[in-house]
Amino acid sequence: MKEVTLRLKHHFDSAHHLNDYKGKCARIHGHRWNITVFARAIIKPNGLLIDFKEIKKEIDKLDHDDLNKIIDFNPTAENLANYFLTTFESIYPLVNFKVILYESPEASVEVRSDGWK
After folding, report:
1. pTM
2. Span 3-112: which CATH code?
3. For the residues of 4-43, what is the DSSP string, one character each?
């Protein structure tokens, strides 16, 4: 079976503020975060790599909440992208991931699994 790449675009809305930051983002504010998740691996015998709804379920855990109250790290775009990457890698250890998280239409962060080609 050949390697396949899955791509899922999704979004979540949340509030946050940045700790140890001097500027407007130190105050609570909200974003519609857009996220694109890429997963690369060999397809399972049933023809699937990962069910799209399973990825959405993990993303939706942060939807419509104050990130500072539900996660234990400074919720920068960089840290959030890495959070999703490590979450997906822990659930699917045989899959390589790339995550692109958009804080706004003009600003994004990209992180990848070590094995991403």
Report:
1. 0.94
2. 3.30.479.10
3. EEEEEEEEEEEEE--TT--SGGGS-EEEEEEEEEEEEEEP
